[in-house]
Each structure stands twice: as structure tokens, then as C-alpha cells.
Amino acid sequence: MRGSPINPLQNNQTQGVSQMVSQFLSKLAQIYPSPRLLTHDAGLVPYESDGLTAFREKPIAVVLPETAEEVIRTVRCCFESNVPFVARGNGTSLSGGSLPVKNGIVISMNRMNRILRLDPVERLAVVEPGVINLNVTKAAEPYGLLYAPDPSSQTVCTIGGNVAFNSGGAHCLKYGMTSNHVLGLKVVLPDGSVDQLGGQSLESIQPDYVGMFVGSEGLFGIALEITLRLIPKPEVYRTVMCAYRSLKAAGDAVSRIIASGLLPGAMEIMDNLSIQAAEAAVHPGYPLDAAGLLIVELEGEASQVEAEFHRLLPLIHASNPYLVQEAKDTFERQQIWKGRKSAFSAVGRLSPDFIVQDGVVPRGRLGEALEEIHRLSEVHGIRVANVFHAGDGNLHPLILYDGKEPGALHRAELLASEIIELCIRFGGSITGEHGVGMEKRNYLPKMFQPNDMESMFQIRNEIDPRHIANPGKMLMDGEAPALTTSGLHPLEKAGVISRE
């Protein structure tokens, strides 16, 4: 049965609510000193929203744990009081996934930012959830290793958030998503119990519990420790920037390269709006008259990359770019990527507000999808800046609007809706890496069959029968479910773990 939180704090008209809130906050005060328990408006306002600023909600409290034990005690306190919670890193979620829950609390994890272990021989790192993504690679770099997932926000986003949303990045084409690089997880479940999922190896005789937890958007609890797989740093890189007179031509070039059997480390496309914004912001040296810019990067052993490069160039020239420019050194390569990775923030120069989607289409229909997005942009009279992971068909259209203009947000949301519908119609996905969150939860039933949706609800209900772990995200909450009374651990009843 689908459910919603049994939350005594929901009805603000009920007598005694203030007293119940006070009692709950008193329990939190036994865990946290006052500087790490925020209850006043000045402390709560920064947590009202994440990267999707169209949604806002003020929590009743924000706690700042520094140890795993504090997180566990907090979750148990929420479970005992039936108070919802959401874990948050640095708030870079673009789907409203770390939006506070009404009458709930935020557990801010960014003070738990220690790399607990780095083993260069076993090629793994054990980190706390608040560790910044890029800091893992910085720590591994002296050993010739790196952490492969590289979201555009990797200088600020946390590993815990990457786990929650199964983040990708520019190089996910070759190396895969976060789920491909997480070996094990120590987690606290919504009832406050602690479990170890996975271990220190890619091989396991058990079901893929880690794969189930990664990307669950906080609905199954909070990761306390994360064991990451590290990979050898490529010996060489060869990065090529190609400019086209049309965005479709850039998209078709990607299809051509993939069809050849080549697997570059990354393939990214930017349209003219995003090129203009990035050039104004960080001056990467992009051609300002390009309708589409394609970035292709080969990486690996020198002999392999050299052979692939000689296969790549004819494919690029056959796609009729008017400019092909290879990065001559590390600085030029970094400049090319600096422009691409600053694109989201740089678009703020073009518009006070924007909605960014991350739907996926089959790579063979990439050019067609870009043409359709351009058509929809003209129909709605709304500018759209396109930046995306072209190699795996992961679109990132940024829909520009002014939130102060009456009705502007609604019109932008209508266009965003049509783009999501386009991705489903083309046989793709509503999300590639940003997650479902608040923004796209209505579209899950359009992408999945009823039986699939029922399975999702069943697993959620067994793991978190009270729906206190980030309720309202990904799955729509409805009628309250019956609580688990079998005496089994929630993950056991759902068939996810076994005590044997």
C-alpha cells in the first residue's frame, strides 16, 4: 500500500503541536550543542532550497553532525517521534531532491568530510559523505589514481549527494556513473538501524544491494561511510574542440563517432547561448559564432590514444565542422573543460532564473531531439541554452526565465514538461543523473509500467514504513501504510538483506 508519513507535526491547527515540537527539539538538544542545532529563521533560511530554487520549504530545525554516531542518534530520534528528515550535502541538487520536508528536519552532512582511508594498492578510498567529489581525486593523485565520476559541480558537490542521485559527469560515457564506482556502504536505515552493504570488491555473491541504495534519493536512509573504487590516471589525453554551423550537425557527429566503435573518454556539446555565457564568464577561448560546439576527449595509454586519434579525425572532418582545434598542452585542455564545467553557473549571466532538465534520448536520435527542443523553444518564446553529455544522449537544456515576471515560471515549466515528454516519446529516460526529486516525480508512471511502480512502492514501504526518510521525493506519497510488525528488519522483509 502506498503511504505518507505518520507525522504528528503536520497539522499546525492541532492543540499541543508547539509542545510536541519543543519536546522533539529538546531531544535534539541532547545530541547537539546549540551552535550545531539551528532553529531560528536566520539559520534555517539558507537550507530552504537546493539548486532547484523554484521550490522552497523551511524545516523546523537543521542539525550539523560531525560523527556517524550523531547521525544515527538523530535518525532514531526522528523514528521515535515520527518526524521526517532529509540528509543534505552542499545543496547542489537540481531536482529538488534535498529540499526540506514540511515539519521535518535537515541533517546537514558536510561537516562529515574526512577521507578515512586511502589504499593505493587496493585502489580504494573510504570516505565520509560530506567529502567533496574533487577532493577524492586530489588525495589519490600522488599515487597516480583518480576518482572517475566528475559532475560539473565536482568542486563543491559531496560524495553523499553523488550516491543519493547516482551522479555522472562528462566522463561517464567511458567510466560509468557513481554506481559503477561505489564498492560498499555503511548506512543508517530509517528506523535507526545500521547495515553494511557491499564491501571492498567489485565481485559479490550477493544481490547488488549497493546498486539499489545508490540513486535512491535518500528514501532508504543515509550513507555514513562510502567505499569508492579508484582507477589509474590516464597516461595521456587528446582533447579536440570542433565548431559547427548547426547544433544538429554537432549531434550527428556524435552519432557518427559512436557508430564507428570508438569510445572516447568524453563527448560534450554546447550551443551558442551557453558558448556565449561561458566565454563571458571564464574566457576559455570558444568560437563565439558557433551554433554548436563539440568537445571530444580521448584518454588512456599513449599508443592506444594515438591510434584512436587517427581514427577520430576523419570522422570529425566528415561531419563538416568549420573549425577543429586540438588542445596543445594541459593548460589549453583545462581551459576547454573550464568553459564546459562553468556553463550552468555562467548561464546566470543570461537570465536571473533557469530550469535545467537532464532527460536522455537514444544517441542515434540526438540531432533530431536538438531540433525538436529548438522548435519548442520558438513555440513557447522562451530561450533555451543547451549543454549536455552528448556521448550517452544525456540532454541538459537550460530553460531561461525571470521569476519576477508574472506567469514566467509556469511557462518555463510547461516547456520543461514538453521536453521530458519528448525524451519518453523518443525511448529515453526522464533523468540521466540529476534524479527525480520533486521536479520529475509525476513522470515516473509515464516511463514505467504499473507493476514496476508497485514494486518500487513495495520496497519503499518495507524499508521505511513510516515514510520519514525524505518523503515526497521521487515517489508520490498517498495513504499511510500499515507499519511493519513482523519483527523482521525492514530490509529483510523486502528481500534486500539476509541474516543467514
Could you explain how this protein is built, in words?
With 500 residues, the chain is of the alpha+beta class. Among the domains are: 115-232, Uridine Diphospho-n-acetylenolpyruvylglucosamine Reductase, domain 3, CATH 3.30.465; 236-434, FAD-linked oxidases, C-terminal domain (Vanillyl-alcohol Oxidase, Chain A, domain 3, 3-Layer(aba) Sandwich), CATH 3.40.462.10. The chain is 33% helix and 18% strand. The protein has helices at residues 17-29, 41-44, 68-81, 133-140, 159-165, 172-175, 209-213, 247-259, 272-282, 302-318, 330-341, 343-346, 366-380, 408-425, 444-447, 450-463, 490-493, and strands spanning 37-38, 61-63, 85-88, 105-108, 115-119, 124-127, 145-146, 182-188, 194-198, 222-229, 231-232, 236-244, 266-271, 292-300, 323-326, 353-356, 384-389, 397-401. The strands form four sheets. A seven-stranded antiparallel sheet has the order 15-12-14-13-17-18-16, sandwiched between helices. Helix 8 (247-259) runs antiparallel to helix 13 (366-380) and helix 13 (366-380) runs antiparallel to helix 14. The two termini are 28 Å apart. Mean pLDDT is 89; it is low at 1-6 and 478-500.
How would you describe this structure in keywords?
500 residues, alpha+beta, Uridine Diphospho-n-acetylenolpyruvylglucosamine Reductase, domain 3, Vanillyl-alcohol Oxidase, Chain A, domain 3, seven-stranded antiparallel beta sheet, five-stranded antiparallel beta sheet, 17 helices, 33% helix, globular, disordered C terminus
